[in-house]
Amino acid sequence: MDRLTDFGTPALAANGLAHRYGDTMALDGVTFEVGEGAFTALLGPNGSGKTTLLRIVSTLLKPTAGTAAVLGHDVQADPQAVRRSLGVVFQSPALDKLLTVDETLRVQAALYGMSRPEAAARVVELLGAFGLSDVSGRKTRHLSGGQRRRVDLARGLVHRPRLLLLDEPTTALDPAARAVFWQTVHALRRDEGIAVLAATHLLDEAETADHVVILDRGRVVADGAPGALRAALGEETLWLDVDDAEAVATAFAPDAEAVSPTLVRVLGAAPHRRVEEAYARFGASVRSATVRRASLEDVFLSATGRNLREHEAS
Ligand code: ADP
């Protein structure tokens, strides 16, 4: 039976994936799935293992342990079938700047053995979908950064893959070009039903996903729909920025926990009422008290005890 038509086969199944570079355990037993047609964000600070994971899934790197399967095809046993099922857009654009946009896409079609008429129709379709029809005869070195990224994306999709891997795809783009890029990806999912696994360290990009897998130091620390992960932290929560989080959390026990050396999360009903209590008891050592709904940043903080951005800087 054709595995691609198996009912319920996930676009990607990673099971206990591990990878070690010398002494560095870049991935340490990573298990998660990307559902068929789902948009999954792989969120984590720099160095958390995102690129290593995407390189294993795209068959460029062998895992030290564990397995990964794309549409049921094992990355080690059947790398060719995996590559046919995948579209890949890595961090730095790898376009041949001497080729035109049209030529770039046709070369890719030839690499995948598509017939000329089939390639021609697909190229026209992609140029239209990506707003690149007007620049199809232009050499890619004469394009804007945003246009080049869209050519990269179109190139990854020529052979109609079922899973698109994106590694920090908007890094070099300005906010307007980033927005256009994501609109294009979302339209693509709608029109072609393609599953997406996008590595990012940007919270707002992860917030728009169906599903988020949060990685930290090579491990999955949270996995679920963004709304469900936020809801698990409670509706509204009081956050206290203080000098000594342990001391304040102990005083508020059992409703509070120190999520970092300086941040306390106070749980329980009516958090507004506890703001006054915090100032009354801890006065000057409270730098700020904020009542707000949890964000994915808070999810990361709760799971790791560190701030996503603080960690990046370290
Ligand atoms: P991310 O994509 O989340 O920034 P990476 O997968 O690039 O994370 O890196 C994970 C860890 O593996 C980091 O500690 C990084 O320094 C290390 N690492 C990545 N590539 C190599 C390599 N080629 N050789 C040695 N260590 C590496």
What can you tell me about this protein's structure?
This protein is α/β, with parallel strands linked by helices and 314 residues long. The strands form three sheets. Strands 6-7-8-3-9-10 form a six-stranded mixed sheet, sandwiched between helices. A four-stranded antiparallel sheet has the order 2-1-4-5, with helices on one face. A hairpin with a 2-residue loop joins strand 1 and strand 2. Helix 3 packs across helix 4 and helix 5 packs parallel to helix 6. The protein starts with 11 loop residues before the first strand and ends with a helix. The N terminus is likely disordered. The structure holds adenosine-5'-diphosphate. The site of adenosine-5'-diphosphate (ADP) has 11 residues, from strand 2 and helix 1.
